Amino acid sequence: MGAFTGRDVLVEFAIADENVLPAGLAYKRLGMMRGKSMKTSWDTADTTADQSPQFTKTALVTFKSMEFSGDGVSYTDALYNQSEFKVNTISPGIATANQPKAWLRMTDPDGGKYEGPFIVTEWSDERPHADAATWSISATSNGAVVFTPA
Prior knowledge:
Blueprint: E1 10-14, E2 28-29, E3 33-46, E4 59-73, H1 82-90, E5 101-107, E6 113-126, E7 134-141, E8 146-148
Antiparallel strand pairs: 1-2, 1-5, 3-4, 4-7, 5-6, 6-7, 6-8
Pfam families: Phage_tail_2
InterPro entries: Phgtail_TP901_1
Protein name: Phage tail protein
């Protein structure tokens, strides 16, 4: 398939806690997005000791965390599902035990995708005087996030 642009990447969400089975989720598109980013980070434990090869540090990974961030242009149309996602972030309900939880799925044009449960850690609305109103989000993994290649 080759190169692609970020605008061709699909971001979807489902309001649910981390214990549900992903196959049963009803995902909705989070529309009118511009930037979309998924970051994987591993914590490490230092395993360096007096017999480490050539005095070189060694390590083991311990825990993985995933971070999603994105932004878009604010639209009031229900079609883009921005209000539903925003309400769940600002005033989460009983479906997620009053926590700002959601499953996120980010799919590339070739079919490769990230999918997993997240806690939305930040929602930001920007309302400049003479420019488009925008929003941005940040979310941190809250369970197993899986990447499935195409």
